[in-house]
Each structure stands twice: as C-alpha cells, then as structure tokens.
Input
Amino acid sequence: MYAHAGHPSAAVVLVTSALFFTTTQAGEYHDEPDKVFSFKSRPDIRAPKWNVTFHDEIRLSPGYWFVAPYEKYVDDLDTYGWVGPHIYDGHGDLVWSGNNQFDGANIMDFRLQNVSGVESLTLVDNNLSKGIVLNSQYEIVESMQWGDDPIDINDHEFQWVDNNTRNLVINSAWTRAPVEASRTVGFDGECNTIFESFKELNATTGEETFRWDSYNHIRLNESTHMNFGDTIDQA
Ligand SMILES: *[C@@H]1O[C@H](CO)[C@@H](O)[C@H](O)[C@H]1NC(C)=O
Ligand SMILES: *[C@@H]1O[C@H](CO)[C@@H](O)[C@H](O)[C@H]1NC(C)=O
Ligand SMILES: *[C@@H]1O[C@H](CO)[C@@H](O)[C@H](O)[C@H]1NC(C)=O
Ligand SMILES: *[C@@H]1O[C@H](CO)[C@@H](O)[C@H](O)[C@H]1NC(C)=O
Ligand SMILES: *[C@@H]1O[C@H](CO)[C@@H](O)[C@H](O)[C@H]1NC(C)=O
Ligand SMILES: *[C@@H]1O[C@H](CO)[C@@H](O)[C@H](O)[C@H]1NC(C)=O
Output
C-alpha cells in the first residue's frame, strides 16, 4: 500500500474489512454493498470499501491510496472484481479500478514512478509475470518480461533506475541445494530451495546487465525454512 502522508503524526488509520479480502475467503464479502463499491454501469467493479478515520486531517497532505488486493484463485469464485489495482482518494472514494483491464489478475508493486521523465503508474502483473507501465490515460506503454520462466519471477519489485535506462527486478530461482548445505537445516539429501537474486536489466532490451544471487552468499541455516514432511524441505 502506498500513500502520501505529509506529517508523521498525522496518520490516516484505515479500519476496514478490506484486509480480509487478502487473508480470508473473499467470497463471503464480495456481494455485501457496505463492503465493496458497486456500480450499475460497471458491474464488473467490486473494489473494497475503506473506512478511513482521520485523526488530524488538517495536517495531512493530499494524496491517493494505491491498493492492490490479492486473492488466491479459487475455482468457484468466477469473478474477482475486488482483485487488482485500485486508486482511492484520501477519503476512500474510488477513483480508478484496473481490475477489468488486467483480467482480474493479482497485481503487485502498484505505485508511481518517474519513467522516462514522466510520472507513471507501474505495477507487476502476477499472472503474466510482466512489469507494466501505464500513462496518464491508464494505457499500457511498456510491458516487460524478465526471467526465462514465470515461476522464477518474484513480483515484488519493478524499479526504474539510472535515469530510466535500467530496471531492478527480483528473481526467485528454485534450486536443489547441495547435500552438505541441506544437512545444516536438518535435511538428509538435496532440499528444494528458493534462492532469491536481484537483476539489473537494460530497460530497452531487457538484457541482464548485473545480477546478485543469494546462492553461495546466504547460508540455508540463516534463511527461512519450512518442513513439509520428509520428502521436501524448503529454505
Ligand atoms: C466503518 O465504520 C463505521 C463506524 O465506526 C461502522 O459502523 C461500519 O461498520 C464500518 N464499516 C466497515 C465496512 O468496517
Ligand atoms: C492468466 O493468463 C492466462 C494466459 O496466460 C489467461 O488465460 C488467464 O485468463 C489469466 N488469468 C487471470 C486471472 O488473469
Ligand atoms: C523525472 O525525471 C526527469 C529526468 O529523467 C526529471 O527531469 C523530472 O523532473 C522528473 N520528474 C519528476 C516528477 O520527478
Ligand atoms: C536523463 O535522460 C534524458 C533523456 O531521457 C536526458 O535528456 C538527460 O540528460 C538524462 N539525465 C542525466 C542526468 O543523465
Ligand atoms: C541498452 O541496450 C541498447 C542496445 O544494445 C544500448 O544502445 C544501450 O546503451 C543499453 N543501455 C544501457 C543502460 O546499458
Ligand atoms: C550455519 O552453518 C555454518 C556452517 O555449518 C555455521 O558456521 C554457522 O554458525 C551456522 N549459522 C547459524 C545461524 O546457525
């Protein structure tokens, strides 16, 4: 989530059921008029409603809330009007919803960035594994893929740097860790491991110009690991 908040003491507190959309069963909420916006002209949009509490509104700089609720795809929920990028004004009124434009896909890292000298909306389409730039008309002006396999893409970062000539992105490579390293987390064999790396890409060509990989740099026993039983161990 992203917002302009002018003064640290002038916090906007969002008290809402909307957080439930990402963590519990959205199906229970998506038809309730006090929980989602609904429009006769745009029945596809069901952006979550926010309950905005102002503690010291006069000290708050004006701005917008950028929100992209995430939903695990569930077969019996055929539409996901609340998933995807939405922009709200400071009072929680819906300004724009990109749900339809991105086919209800989960959207990550939705924010403003200066791209080629123009303040632009950027996001990562989790379904297509693409970094996307929208112009002020909400039209797609850049659509970039990185990594050979979408499963390798970590959608949490799509950053334009170096006067907009390069991108920084994160990769998640599934790899089998060596036996010796696996042993340090109590696994007998080669455990399945996600090694995160970050890449710098040429923004024009998508070519990789730099990469730092956690493989051989961060030990498994210094990482998060989950034991899913005696056949697979992840770190
Ligand atoms: C928003 O806040 C009001 C007043 O506190 C409360 O009555 C209402 O149920 C809240 N709505 C949601 C969606 O949480
Ligand atoms: C995800 O992308 C595939 C095509 O790659 C498309 O068929 C599918 O409808 C998309 N799903 C969502 C939820 O966007
Ligand atoms: C965006 O970057 C350009 C240089 O590429 C700079 O001239 C411009 O002032 C920046 N705009 C904003 C809104 O930061
Ligand atoms: C940034 O790029 C613009 C062209 O997009 C160029 O005019 C400007 O000189 C560059 N600024 C710097 C600091 O390199
Ligand atoms: C990106 O690639 C193009 C084409 O090869 C090249 O002209 C340009 O200098 C590269 N930019 C950077 C930042 O490496
Ligand atoms: C991780 O394993 C290495 C090598 O076995 C050991 O030196 C290090 O102290 C361990 N680190 C932690 C946090 O247990």
Notes: The CA atoms of residues 82 and 180 lie 46 Å apart. The radius of gyration is 20 Å.
